[in-house]
Amino acid sequence: MRLLIMGPQGVGKGTQAALLSKHFGIPAISTGDIFRYNIRNETELGKRVKAYTDKGELVPDELTNSIVKDRLGQEDAKNGWILDGYPRNVSQVRALDDMLAELGTPLSYAVALEAERTILMSRMSKRAEQEGRADDTPEAIAKRLATYEQETAPLLDLYESRGQLIVVNGVGEIDAISSKIIQQLN
Ligand code: AMP
Hints:
The protein has a 5-stranded parallel beta sheet, with helices on both faces. By secondary structure, it is of the alpha/beta class. Helix 4 (61-72) packs parallel to helix 5 (90-103). It contains 9 helices and 5 strands, in the order E-H-E-H-H-H-E-H-E-H-H-H-E-H. It binds adenosine monophosphate. Adenosine monophosphate (AMP) binds at residues 9, 31-32, 35, 52-53, 56-59, 64, 85-86, 88, 92, 135, 144.
């Protein structure tokens, strides 16, 4: 199974990606987590991306694409994967299409989680209190949601036109949502 998990910030992509990862026995790959890990450990990559992530701006495509390409080529990704937080714009979709063509492993589905904006805002401010993420300031949150609306949301139409989109309501009990996703994938 090769999946994208899509939807706005705060909709629960990371939570669902972790459950699907366990269910299918495939890695959940989050570009946001990769960036945060590198920032925390002050790696060269971390130093290059920190200014973007702190402001809630997208990291340049070239850099993001090369990280994903490298990750998908690793041994544990041979039997499938779940990509969380990538692709986020049309140019990343093209880059992913090229990577998958090269690897000879087509995408199975794009799973889109949905929730109303008020729910997303309240979930994110709660997470800001609990985790203290540098990009959970009100300015950065607003910026990330705006970027999502402008650049990422249109990608759902694109995957729908390819017959690869599954839409699931992201509000409700965590296990019930994951069961619904798995049911639709089957
Ligand atoms: P996330 O945890 O997915 O919200 O990602 C946190 C931050 O990492 C984002 O606000 C971006 O700055 C950066 N980031 C994560 N994924 C991508 C991506 N696919 N393209 C560009 N930047 C990204």
